[in-house]
Design a protein that fits this description.
The complex is a heterodimer of chains A (324) and B (360). Chain A is 38% helix and 20% strand. With 324 residues, chain A is of the alpha/beta class. In chain A, the strands form three sheets. A seven-stranded mixed beta sheet of chain A has the order 3-2-4-5-7-6-12, with helices on both faces. In chain A, β4, α4 and β5 form a beta-alpha-beta unit. The longest helix of chain A has 15 residues.
Chain lengths: 324, 360
C-alpha cells in the first residue's frame, strides 16, 4: 500500500471526490494557481479548471455564505479557510445560517469547511487556534479532525458525501510529519466513530488530532513504569462516539481528557460530563483534563512550549492519576 | 426614449400586478386581526407602503427564478405564487407550516424538485431570511453561482433594507457576486428607517444604490412607489443578468408606513413625513395608472380587491384551525437521516383577471 503524508491524503480525497462527483467544487483564498498556502490544493486547478477551483476574495463570510447558496442548488462545496483561525469571520454564517437551515425549513447544507488548525509551529495568536469548542454548542454542525493520513483521506471523503455541514480540522503540525499507508481504492472513515489506537487496562487517554501522537508517546513512557495506557482517538468531535468513550472509561476506570485547545470551556469538559453522567460508577479516580493554558496562543517558542500540552505533562498527570 | 419593458405588459398582466399588491396588503391586514386576537405568535411586521416595489421587482422574474425576500416583501411572495395559507401557518407557528413552528413569519424555504434530480416543475427557489438580514446576500450570490454550475438559466433576486446594507455580509456578498459575475439582482430598499434609526445614521452617501459603486456593478435609483417605474428597471437588470451580464443593484426610494413591528408606534417619525408618503401610496397610484391607461375600470379593480380580501380571510381561517407542532418532535430534523422537514411550500396558479383564485 502506498505511504503518503497527511497533507497528500487530504489532497487525494479532494481529487477523488471531484473526479467522482461533478457537484463537488472547492473555493477559498489562493487555492487555484498558487495551490493554497500549504499547497493542499496544488494541481486541482489544472485538473478541474477555474469553474470548480474558485479563488475567492479574502472574504470568509462570502466564501461560506455563497457555499451555503450553492449547496442549496445541489452542489457540494468544499471551502478552504486558509488558517482555521479565520473561521471566526464566518462564524455567523456557520452557526446562525448553515447549522440551523435543516432544522428551520428542511433545506440541507451539504458543505465542508476545512482548514489548518493547531499550534507547535510558532504561528502566534492568529495562525494556531483549535476552534472546536466554539462550535460544539451548535446543534446542526458536524466536526472531524484526523490524526493520521488514512483517516485524513477517509474522513474528508465522508465529510464531502455527508448531507450536513461538516467542519474538517486538519492539524498543520501533522501535514508533512505524519505518513502512513493509504489505499488508492475508495473508502471512507465514518463520521461519529472513534478509534482505539492502543489498548490498555490501567488508564485511558481520550484525545484527537496531533495530541493522539503525544498520547501514544506518553503511553510508551508509562509502559516502562508498568502502566498500561489506552489511547482513544475521537476522530469525530460532533457527533461524539459516546459508546467508545464510555467503553474505555468503564474498562480502565481512570481517564485523562487531552486536547490542544485551551482548558476552560474546552471539549474536555463535555467529555468529562458524559463520563460523569453515564459511567460514574466505573470511575476509581477523578477525571483529569490536560489542555493548553488559558491564554491566547503565544508566538515565542519558549512561551508556546509552556502553553501547549506535551508528553511530559501527560506522563505527569497520568502518574498522579494512577497513584490516586 | 427607448421602449420601456412595462409597455409590453398586457392588460391581464397589469391587473395581475395589482392583484398581487392588494393580496399582500389584505394578507397583512388579516394578520393584524389575528395578531389582535393573540393568534399570531411573536411579532408582526408590516410591509405597508412597500407592496408596490415588492411586486414590481418580483414580477420581472420568471416563476423558476430564485427569490430571497425579507419581512417587508410579502408582495414578492404573492407574486411568486406562494399560497397565502403558508404565510398564515408561519405567523401562527402551526405544525403544518413550512418550518413546522421552528421559525417565524416569512422565514420559509422552497427548493424545487430539479435540485435533487426530480422533475422540472414551474417552481421558484425561495429562501426566506434569517434575522441576520445581510446574510441573504452572500447566500443569494451562491444560489446564482450554484444554479449556473448546474446549467440553469436562473436569476436570483435578493431584497435588503437600508439597515442591513451596513452589515459586513452585505458588502462581502455583493463584492463576491460582482467578482464572480453571477446573475443576481439586489433590491436595496431605502424605506427611511431601520427600526428607529434614520437612514442618515446608516450611511453617508446620498442614495442607497451608491452602495454598489465600490463593486463595479450597475446600480440605479427608482421611485419605489411607482410600480411600473420599478418594473422597468428591475426587468432590465434581470434580463441583463440572465444574458450573462452579472450582478446589479436596484435602489428603491420608499417608506415603511408602520413601525418596525406592531409594538412600535413609530413616534420617532415626523408626522409630515407620514402624510407626504401616505399621499404616495403605491397601490392607490397604480390604481390610477391602470384607469388612466384604460387597462381597468374602477369596478374591475374594486372586484379584484374584494376577491383578494375574501381569499385572504378564507386562508387565514383554514390556517387558524390547524394544529400546533407536537412537542415530541423538538429535536427531529437537526441532522440528515429522517424526512421530517421538507423545504417545500404550496403554490397557487397565476390568477386570471376575473377569477383571481380557483376554488379548491
Amino acid at each position: 500500500m502506498p505511504v503518503i503524508t497527511y497533507l497528500e491524503a487530504i489532497r487525494q480525497a479532494l481529487f477523488d471526490e471531484m473526479a467522482a462527483d461533478e457537484r463537488v467544487f472547492v473555493m477559498g483564498e489562493d487555492i487555484g494557481a498558487y495551490g493554497g498556502a500549504f499547497k493542499v490544493t496544488e494541481g486541482l486547478l489544472e485538473r478541474f479548471g477555474a469553474q470548480r477551483v474558485i479563488d475567492s476574495p479574502i472574504s470568509e463570510a462570502a466564501i461560506v455564505g455563497s457555499a451555503i447558496g450553492a449547496s442549496y442548488m445541489g452542489m457540494r462545496p468544499v471551502c478552504e479557510v486558509q488558517f482555521i483561525d479565520f473561521i471566526a469571520s464566518a462564524f455567523d454564517m456557520l452557526t446562525n445560517y448553515a447549522a440551523t437551515s435543516r432544522y428551520r425549513n428542511g433545506a440541507a447544507v451539504p458543505l465542508v469547511v476545512r482548514g489548518p488548525c493547531g499550534g507547535g509551529v510558532s504561528g502566534g495568536p492568529f495562525h494556531s487556534v483549535n476552534p472546536e469548542s466554539f462550535f460544539l454548542n451548535t446543534p446542526g454542525l458536524k466536526m472531524v479532525e484526523p490524526s493520521n493520513a488514512y483517516d485524513a483521506k477517509g474522513l474528508l471523503k465522508a465529510a464531502i458525501r455527508d448531507d450536513d455541514p461538516v467542519l474538517y480540522f486538519e492539524h498543520k503540525f501533522l501535514y508533512r510529519r505524519i505518513k502512513d499507508e493509504v489505499p488508492d481504492e475508495d473508502y471512507i472513515v465514518p463520521i461519529g466513530k472513534a478509534a482505539v489506537r492502543r489498548e490498555g487496562s490501567d488508564l485511558s487517554i481520550i484525545t484527537f488530532g496531533a495530541m493522539t501522537h503525544t498520547a501514544l508517546e506518553a503511553a510508551k513512557q508509562l509502559e516502562q513504569d508498568g502502566v498500561q495506557t489506552e489511547v482513544l482517538d475521537l476522530r469525530s468531535l460532533a457527533p461524539l462516539d459516546k459508546e467508545a468513550i464510555l467503553a474505555s472509561a468503564a474498562k480502565t476506570s481512570r481517564v485523562i481528557l487531552l486536547h490542544e485547545a485551551t482548558r476552560t470551556g474546552g471539549i474536555g469538559g463535555e467529555l468529562a460530563a458524559i463520563i460523569a453522567e453515564e459511567a460514574f460508577e466505573y470511575l476509581d479516580a477523578p477525571l483529569v483534563r490536560v489542555a493548553s493554558a488559558d491564554a491566547p496562543v503565544p508566538y515565542a517558542p519558549s512561551l508556546e512550549a509552556a502553553f501547549l500540552p506535551n508528553v511530559d505533562k501527560v506522563v505527569g498527570a497520568a502518574k498522579k492519576l494512577v497513584a490516586y | 426614449m427607448r421602449d420601456s419593458p412595462s409597455d409590453a405588459l398586457s392588460v391581464d398582466q397589469l391587473k395581475e400586478m395589482f392583484y398581487f399588491a392588494v393580496l399582500a396588503r389584505h394578507v397583512e391586514e388579516r394578520l393584524v386581526i389575528l395578531f389582535r386576537q393573540s393568534k399570531v405568535v411573536g411579532g408582526l411586521y408590516r410591509s405597508l407602503g412597500q407592496e408596490g416595489e415588492s411586486v414590481a421587482t418580483a414580477y420581472a422574474l420568471d416563476r423558476t427564478d430564485a427569490v430571497l425576500p425579507l419581512i417587508r416583501n410579502m408582495g414578492a411572495l404573492m407574486t411568486m405564487g406562494v399560497r397565502p395559507l403558508e404565510i398564515f401557518r408561519q405567523y401562527m407557528a402551526k405544525g403544518t407550516g413550512n418550518s413546522r413552528g421552528r421559525d417565524l413569519n416569512v422565514h420559509l424555504v422552497h427548493m424545487p424538485a430539479w435540485i435533487g434530480g426530480g422533475p422540472d416543475a414551474q417552481e421558484p427557489v425561495i429562501v426566506g431570511p434569517i434575522s441576520m438580514l445581510g446574510d441573504s446576500i452572500p447566500v443569494a450570490a451562491g444560489i446564482a453561482m450554484g444554479a449556473r454550475m448546474r446549467g440553469r438559466s436562473l436569476v436570483a433576486m435578493a431584497w435588503i433594507g437600508d439597515g442591513a446594507t451596513s452589515t459586513g455580509a452585505f458588502h462581502e456578498g455583493l463584492n463576491f457576486a460582482a467578482v464572480q459575475k453571477v446573475p443576481l439582482v439586489v433590491v436595496a430598499e431605502d424605506n427611511k428607517y431601520a427600526y428607529s434609526t434614520p437612514i442618515a445614521k446608516q450611511m453617508a452617501i446620498a442614495h442607497i444604490d451608491e452602495r454598489a459603486a465600490a463593486y463595479g456593478i450597475p446600480h440605479e435609483m427608482v421611485d419605489g412607489n411607482d410600480m411600473l417605474a420599478v418594473y422597468d428597471v428591475a426587468k432590465r437588470m434581470v434580463d441583463r443578468a440572465r444574458a450573462g451580464g452579472g450582478a446589479a443593484l436596484l435602489g428603491v426610494d420608499t417608506m415603511r408606513m408602520q413601525g418596525h413591528a406592531q409594538h412600535d408606534d413609530m413616534r420617532y417619525v415626523p408626522k409630515a413625513m407620514v402624510e407626504e408618503w401616505t399621499a404616495r401610496d403605491p397601490i392607490v397610484r397604480f390604481r390610477r395608472t391602470l384607469m388612466d391607461r384604460g387597462a381597468a375600470s374602477e369596478k374591475d379593480l374594486d372586484e379584484i380587491d374584494r376577491l383578494a380580501k375574501s381569499y385572504a380571510a378564507e386562508e387565514a381561517d383554514l390556517a387558524a384551525a390547524e394544529p400546533a407542532p407536537d412537542p415530541a418532535d423538538v429535536t427531529r430534523g437537526v441532522y440528515a437521516g429522517d424526512e421530517f422537514m421538507r423545504p417545500r411550500v404550496e403554490f397557487v396558479p397565476r390568477p386570471t383577471a376575473h377569477s383571481p383564485q380557483p376554488k379548491a
